[in-house]
Amino acid sequence: MSKSSFKNTIGIKVDVDTHMGMQKGVPALLEMFSRYNIQVSFFIPMGRDNTGRTVKRIFIRKGFLKKASRVGVLKTYGLRTLLYGILLRGPEIAKRAVHLIQEIIKEGHEVGIHGYDHVYWHDHIKHLSKEKTERILKDSVRVYKEITGKAPLSFAAPGWMINPHALDFFQKNGFVYTSDTRGDLPFYPVMEKNRFSIIQIPTTLPTLDEVVGIEGDNPVMLAEYFLTLLKDDLNILTVHAELEGNRWKKFLEHFIKNSMERGFVFKRLIDVADELKNYGKLPFCEISFGTVRGRAGEVSCHSPPLEF
Ligand SMILES: [Zn+2]
Asked: Is residue 127's pLDDT more than 50?
């Protein structure tokens, strides 16, 4: 891919993690995107909201509590969401939002899959067997088809955790690209010595929750910090319906408005992937697990381009 094929481009990837994020955050984001006339990519879990089960990360994961208090977990998610999957049966995120998903599509945005059970995927996918991985993905595809009437073309891994069985599934089931890693350029993945021909589009920018309280604590200051990180080619920003669709709307709005004023254009990730497929020559990069600043636990990252 020549550097110039994506001049000053931003892809916004909206991760919906919870029922509350779907019901309250998504409409607020749709309103904002329509005001700026931009199209983005939404990723939605196809199963139940089991956010309450993340509570055990407080005890097993170094740094989780520190990050949780910086972001204000209770204010962000609300008590009810924190009880889903432990004391309350969590609602089905996608199935209870059919009208909203249809509205997202009607507005010209993309809808992809963000796992089935977000918490389970995040905590277990690294070591999950081929059979269990495929079962989760088949369930996700089934629900997606029921709701949209179409086969899914894209997937974004919850918590940026992925395994080679999932990549194999995407490749064999007509997905155009997936976005499961943190890094700086689109590539074809190599994982545990397997080479895949499914395009991988990494999140290139940090997420708001990783820098809040570190690079600033008000929305405008943080948006200004993100603007300094923009490259003149392709940038992928992951936002969360629970944050930027709620208490941190002002951050995203300032970021969109000011990046547009600086000449950046917004593209859906599926359009980025189509361009890459048609014109691009992508490198192979190896996926492994690493850490990023401000985030507790591991995420999937990529190596520099490999030489064969
Ligand atoms: Zn997520």
From this structure: yes
In the chain, what percentage of residues exceed pLDDT 70?
93
pLDDT exceeds cutoff 70 at 265: yes
CA of 224 to the centre of ligand 1 (A): 24
Q: Where are the domains of the chain?
A: 3-302
Six-digit token pair at 151? Answer: 């086969």
Ligand 1 centre from 17 Cα, in Å?
Answer: 5
Distance 242 CA to ligand 1 centre (A): 10
Secondary structure (H, E, C), 131-177: HHHHHHHHHHHHHHHHHHCCCCCEEECHHHCCCHHHHHHHHHCCCCE
Instruction: State pLDDT tens for residues 148-165.
Output: 999 999 999 999 999 999
236 sits in the region (left: phi over 0; alpha: psi -120 to 50; else beta) called: beta
3-302: CATH topology: TIM Barrel (3.20.20)
CA of 308 to the centre of ligand 1 (A): 34
